[in-house]
Design a protein that fits this description.
Structural class: alpha/beta
Number of strands: 14
Low-confidence stretches: 1-10
CATH superfamily of the largest domain: HAD superfamily/HAD-like
CATH class of the largest domain: Alpha Beta
Mean pLDDT: 91
Largest sheet: 8 strands, mixed
CATH architecture of the largest domain: 3-Layer(aba) Sandwich
Helix content: 25-40%
Number of domains: 2
């Protein structure tokens, strides 16, 4: 847990980034205490921002429920203001075409994240997709028909095991950033993109410095952002490898961890 002596003096936190699943949300719901924490930040003039591996499309209801304007989605590849694209790093079209052709041959399922919709390359009855939906929830994707019908894509989730990922990454190893979050599920983003990159872009846009930012997260895709901001805070339920490197730690997401972290770390003066 946080020690007061661990908090370095800054000229004040101006902006706070929240991962969603396992952080701002617990068991697919936003705890009332997390809502109070976001309201407390706004009362103090501190800007709350979502920073998630999910798509802008999936975050609309959460943004509206919490009255949050900005969202960094697709692990940093898309930044939206009230749902409208402001900055984005999409995949090259030819890369998507090759992946989807191979996925069809090997009967692997890909989830494609656009800003306003998401697509699945096979039936949504894919057992790994259904398992992910059970664990963290997904909105219904459209069935992929043709690459010509698909908008710009900022992130893919490939439902396959580690031994199969080289089918898709070998030829593009210098162009893709990988994050495996389940033995059977892999995030793919354009190379050079992660949450800290999206945060840096938004901080520059808004005129804030990294030491004026705090961030909450629980997964390995939160590693870069927790190390980048002034106060990087891991949830008590976070991945052990994240807890090992996070500058600060709060309570479990289901035990008012967001509110505790806001009150005792973000708003602490020392």
């Amino acid at each position: 847990m946080v020690r007061e002596s661990d908090i370095r003096v800054t000229d004040g936190i101006k902006i706070v980034f929240f991962d969603v699943d396992g952080t701002l949300m617990h068991e697919q719901k936003i705890p009332d205490s997390a809502k109070r924490a976001v309201d407390l930040l706004k009362q103090r003039g501190i800007l709350p921002v979502l920073a998630t591996g999910r798509s802008e499309y999936e975050m609309a209801a959460i943004r509206e429920a919490l009255d949050i304007d900005w969202a960094i989605t697709c692990n940093g590849a898309h930044i939206g203001f009230r749902g409208e694209t402001v900055f984005a790093t999409p995949f090259p079209r030819e890369m998507l075409v090759e992946w989807l052709e191979r996925a069809s041959v090997h009967q692997h399922s890909f989830l494609l994240y656009g800003a306003e919709q998401m697509f699945i390359s096979t039936s949504a009855e894919c057992r790994y997709f259904q398992q992910a939906r059970h664990e963290i929830g997904f909105r219904d994707p459209l069935l992929y028909q043709s690459v010509d019908e698909v908008p710009e894509i900022y992130q893919c989730i490939a439902f396959l095991d580690e031994g199969q990922e080289r089918l898709y990454t070998d030829r593009f190893e210098d162009e893709v950033f990988l994050h495996r979050w389940r033995p059977w599920a892999l995030d793919l983003n354009p190379r050079g993109v992660n949450k800290s990159v999206g945060i840096s872009t938004l901080l520059d846009h808004l005129g804030f410095a990294p030491h004026q930012a705090a961030a909450f997260g629980d997964g390995l895709n939160d590693r870069e952002m927790l190390q980048f901001v002034g106060r990087g805070i891991a949830m008590g339920n976070g991945h052990p490898d994240l807890l090992a490197i996070a500058p600060f730690q709060t309570k479990h997401a289901g035990e008012d961890g967001i509110l505790y972290g806001v009150e005792n770390i973000v708003l602490a003066s020392r």
